[in-house]
Amino acid sequence: MKLSRARRLGGVTTAALAAGLLTTPTAAMADTAPAVLGTNQGVDSSHVSACDSAADPTWIGRSVNGPTLNVKVTGTGARFGVWDVTTGAEDPVFTGDAQAGFGQSAALNVPGLLDGHSYAWHAWALQDTQLSAPSADCHFTVDTTSPTATVGSTDFPSSGTAPKFAGQFGTFVVKTTDPVPAGGEASGVACIRYGWGDLGVGGCDSPGAVVPEDDGTATVSLRVLNWGTNILNVQVIDNAGNVGGAGYTFYAPWNQNPPKALGDVDGDGVPDVLLPDAGGNLQILSGNSGDTTPSAVIRAALSPNQTSWSNVQVAHRGWDANAHAPMDDLLMHPIGSPALYLYNNRDYASFTGYPSVISRPSACQNAAGTAAACPAGFATDWHKADQIALVGSLDSRMVSSLVTVEDGNLWLFANPGLFYRLRTARQLTSDGAWAGYDLIAPGPDSTGNLTLWARERATGDLHAYPIAKKADGTFDFSALADPKADVVAKGFTVAEYPTLGSSGDVDGDGLPDLWAVTADRHLAYFSGWSDPADAGALK
């Protein structure tokens, strides 16, 4: 039974007077009733819920000391009274005083309230032993029972053989319930949070939180990042702020025949474009998606400088088959830094581990590829590398060799060991003519021959330098001696295309393809170096 305000006020005033708790309000204080600020979860909460109507009360969840009642008063303090609306009792279930603090606000915790019950409260301003008129009524309902969840998936069942592999997307169905307290109400499920690691602290406004359907279920599609045992963690949050959880454990088998494509970072078998967004995060965009929606995003905090990918040179075009699945590793060089970093791609472009440092080799070779003394001014670190590009594998493995521009000259760093431990340095040119060129590495063609592309920034000319494989299995780098040779297209000016690159053979015609970022930050895809298609604006 819902009590009227007048009836409750009369009941609590009579009972309090009989107990000697308060005196009759005086005329002088009749216009100084407290302004109700609202109710919150407890003294540790900074959020105060406004006073809703009796028909739509604020939900209060589990807290150590019970909910906190808040008013702003004119006087030395406030007196609070709380009634149980669910039972309809005349007498208050709680009364108490609180001193007014900073800003003349007064707050008091109410312990011992019943799960599922609805309550009403108001307060009087205190001045010594005199009371003001009462404040407006405030309403709330208590829900201290945590919601629950179960998780299931036919793509990755909790037992038996999964029909899908690690690296593929799976559908997971989360079923939630919010138990109803005996004789009371439940607040209902507000949202679901989920993820592979520790979900930490967060509410329904957290990124990735989803609202379940009316039947309490939510269906989510997730890429399984690791082969072997995986645990999907789920949090369920009700409207009172209570949190329940579930963990779903399953086994994702290794794909014995995964898709293989040089330039592929996220493991879907399609070469990718890697570009920073406006916030400094690194976007991974599938080369055949036709739009600019990233398939994955590597946070700015995971960049080598932990702040942004915008000033980091990123090269990818190969993997170490002895170390992980066929997805491109990332070589990263913050511009001007002495360090070169490797992100070993073991988790389908999530890059949740830590990058390792690639030491610069101390063994040099001459232009013919035989051992020689390192030239004068040879750097012992990577600070001179104005540009980096992974040109492709020079042996039977898929570990790519690195090309850099240093002091206007081309250098080749080859003979990589496990985890890209480059072991030889070869100076390919010595006249400084490569200053002013943007390196582009499209990877090998269908016959295994390599090519290095470059854009001359001053003219917009596009050059394609063949690196042919010789009969003895080595490669001929002589075409790189003159950067002005081998012009294949014109018009790729810096003004029109500030950024130019290649993901390799995206359309499957056996020829590498270009991509470009336009002056207005649109992404354009080319077939080879012609027929540009606008994929849309980049973030």
- Write down the Rg: 34 Å
Uncertain stretches of 5 or more adjacent residues: 1-30
Q: Can you tell me the overall shape?
A: elongated
Gap from first CA to last CA: 56 Å
Protein model, in words:
This protein is mostly beta strands. It has one helix at residues 5-18, and strands spanning 35-40, 58-60, 68-72, 77-84, 94-99, 105-109, 118-127, 130-134, 138-142, 148-152, 169-177, 189-195, 217-223, 228-238, 243-252, 272-276, 282-286, 296-298, 312-315, 330-334, 341-343, 356-357, 364-365, 371-372, 385-392, 401-406, 409-414, 424-427, 437-440, 450-456, 462-467, 487-489, 499-504, 513-517, 522-527, 530-537. The strands form nine sheets. Strands 2, 4, 5, 7, 8 and 9 form a six-stranded mixed β-sheet that branches. Strands 24-23-28-27-26-25 form a six-stranded mixed β-sheet, with no helix packed on it. Strands 19-20-21-22 form a four-stranded antiparallel β-sheet, with no helix packed on it. The protein is elongated, with a radius of gyration of 34 Å. Mean pLDDT is 87; it is low at 1-30.
What are the main properties of this structure?
disordered N terminus, 539 residues, six-stranded mixed beta sheet, single chain, mainly beta
Quick description:
The chain is an all-beta fold.
Which secondary structure elements does this structure contain, and how are they paired or packed?
Layout: H1 5-18, E1 35-40, E2 58-60, E3 68-72, E4 77-84, E5 94-99, E6 105-109, E7 118-127, E8 130-134, E9 138-142, E10 148-152, E11 169-177, E12 189-195, E13 217-223, E14 228-238, E15 243-252, E16 272-276, E17 282-286, E18 296-298, E19 312-315, E20 330-334, E21 341-343, E22 356-357, E23 364-365, E24 371-372, E25 385-392, E26 401-406, E27 409-414, E28 424-427, E29 437-440, E30 450-456, E31 462-467, E32 487-489, E33 499-504, E34 513-517, E35 522-527, E36 530-537
Parallel strand pairs: 2-9, 23-28
Antiparallel strand pairs: 1-3, 3-6, 4-5, 4-7, 7-8, 7-9, 10-11, 11-13, 12-14, 14-15, 16-17, 17-18, 19-20, 20-21, 21-22, 23-24, 25-26, 26-27, 27-28, 29-30, 30-31, 31-32, 33-34, 34-35, 35-36
